[in-house]
Amino acid sequence: MLPLKEKDKPIIQKLLSAGCCARCILRFCCVSVQAAYRKPPEETLEELQIFINDTKNDKCQDSVALDSTDEYKSKDAAESETSEDPPNKRAKLETSITDAQSEEGAAAVVKLKDGDSRVCVVCLGILQELCGTTQAVKITEAVKAGNYEFDTLVLSVSLPAQLCVREHSCWLHVKKEVREKGLVLNKDDVIQVKEAFKWIMQGMVAKELGGTAVVTKVSPFEVSVEFTHSETDADCHFLAATCPDCFKPTKNKQSVFTRMAVVKALEKIPDGKFLKHYPCPPKQPTSSCSPQEVQCLRVSVFVAGRYNKFCRSLPQTPWVIDGERRMESSVEELIAAPILSAFRADGFNFSSSGREDVDVRTLGNGRPFAMELLNPHKSRFSKEQMKQLQETINQSSDKIKVRDLQIVTREAMSRMKEGEEEKTKSYTALVWTQKPIQREDISFIDDIKDLTLDQKTPLRVLHRRALAVRQRAIHSMSTRFLDSHHFYLRLKTQAGTYIKEFVHGDFGRTNPNLCQLLKTNTDILELDVESVDVDWPPPVPE
Amino acid sequence: MESVEHEDTKANAPSVIDRYYTRWYRADMKGKPCEDHCILQHSNRICVITLAETHPILQNGRTIKCINYQISNGCSRLKNKVSGKSKRGGQFLTDFAPLCRITCTDETEYTIYSCIRGRLLEVNENILETPNLLLEKPSTEGYIAVILPKFEESKSITENLLNRDEFENIISKRSSAQSQPS
Ligand SMILES: [Zn+2]
């Protein structure tokens, strides 16, 4: 027995004649008992018919009975009666409605005769045949095919935007009756198609998956079903004329009629204007929605570590000029390839605490990096497995080395970028001088402390960065004499200091620079990063 | 690599300009003899405009009296401002847009031109304070301006320019022509 009340009857009556399916009728009656939606829709339809029919015959008695909660629970009698003798019931109903002689009643009769085969005017089939075992099996197959590792899953549903228009039209159709049912009831109290769909499908999918929890709110694993209905795509179009500011074209959207925009426009449009442009109730569609491919998405997993780069011809990220690949590999790719295959992820985003040029090595403890792994099919790794993975990366190339490889949270990743500017970095540069030098000519450099530089954005990066003068500090320097034209310069600097430009001056755009300090042209022949003093990610004990 | 005689003072490695920039030239700018300009194009398409070593300003021990980036009553290159990664607001220059006028103490005056189409990013204000930079280091610290060609024109802007060999040919012809009468 359905949890319906006397005041639902006019709503049911109107919606039946409008061509709504049984579950949509429950929605508009604001029925929030999930079990009611899980019943086979044919049964629900029959119960609805009995319900309105009984009212006609014996108003007082029935309304009392149906208002009593106890009565819903002891429904066995009513159900057995229905199943035993349906033709009789139907005949009775048809007679009674004919008796009522109302036009709506007559329409309802038509509806009842072939009700099951008709596509619902509101949900376009979503709560009819698209909401059953076939669909549950399809979802389950997609999940199994992806071979995901997961404890729970959450279903998400994407519906065609015109469903909102149809919902609104239907709401206007029964607004008066719904309001009479309860003073506080409003459009928001109507159960959403999405919600009803999930109530019905969650249990089915869980059963198909052999008992995996299908949860309502949050799970790291999301399975989405999308429905489209091209036949009624034009339903939304009148809104563009009535509410142009809701439908501004955007670059990356195929259509301006997004669900969000349609909902916004429907909130704004006055009832009268809506009714002028759109039929109420909505027109009968000829076909159901088409289900699109089921999409599975596991939330990103984040992996962090530190890397060394031992090669002077290896860019950090793939180097492409005019669409052509310049170097065969990159730090990013060497690290990512084994990780991607271990996590069976679809893609990744690589970030690091600063970056070095293609010809710069990164020595010492290495540079912190983090990777977002997109849609990882495998996500559980023990410390031992992570160590193994690190070993695999390190075996795969002698150009790089990784340490402290670990799984981190998204929040922890921000610690890498946090206060990056304040952190210090140490470098060693091989410097050439135009004038011949002696040991004592350069020793004064060792005494320079906290030298502030004014650095204009280097010409070598000016094409992709804003032009600005930035103040950067060189905390200390030390020199190691090599020969009359060469020495090693060790520098400890604020992060963000451009070392190459400090040495050669960048057309005098870095001030002061080493040319000025040494009063001769100087150039940088080699550069190594000795340390990146960021205390993240934490060391992983050996 | 430089010639053998220079090996003592020059590093084996090429200079910053040799490594990252391509040298392009315009000779006898606007038909004025020897007013040669040099355009250093970085591999990232940014161009630095400098005087060529052969420019009259750098000859005969001339000294500079003043450098003026105010090229007309209404337009000063010093007022150029660019903002953001996309360098909004920079003055757009065509091939023969004047960048500045340089007056020498012998009252000779020269106009320096942009040589290429593109957005003006900056002019060298250091040479206003220290004009000697222009004389002592014309191809580095004494640069005139930095220009960013349009992305789609970064190849075509150099079509009208001379490469280093072509320019050196012109210079050698020029000096042999000059030496003939004497
Ligand atoms: Zn429906």
TrEMBL record, chain A:
Region feature (Disordered): 71-91
Keyword set includes RNA-binding: no
Domain of life: Eukaryota
Any one GO cellular component localisation term in the record: mitochondrion
Residues of the Pus10 N-terminal eukaryotes domain: 120-296
Keywords: Coiled coil, Cytoplasm, Isomerase, Metal-binding, Mitochondrion, Nucleus, tRNA processing, Zinc
Pfam families: Pus10_C, Pus10_N_euk
Gene Ontology terms describing biological process: tRNA pseudouridine synthesis
Protein name stated in the entry: tRNA pseudouridine synthase Pus10
Chain's gene name: PUS10
Automatic annotation (TrEMBL), chain B:
GO MF annotation: an example: actin filament binding
GO cellular component: dendrite; filopodium tip; growth cone; lamellipodium; nuclear speck
GO BP annotations, alphabetical order: dendrite morphogenesis; regulation of actin filament polymerization; regulation of filopodium assembly
Subcellular localization, as worded in the UniProt entry: Cell projection, Dendrite; Cell projection, Growth cone; Cell projection, Lamellipodium; Nucleus speckle
Protein's UniProt keywords contain Glycoprotein: no
Coiled coil stretches, renumbered: none
Pfam family, one: GCV_H
Keywords carried by this UniProt record: Cell projection, Nucleus
Family per record: Belongs to the ABITRAM family.
Protein name: Protein Abitram
Source organism per UniProt: Oreochromis aureus
Name of encoding gene: ABITRAM
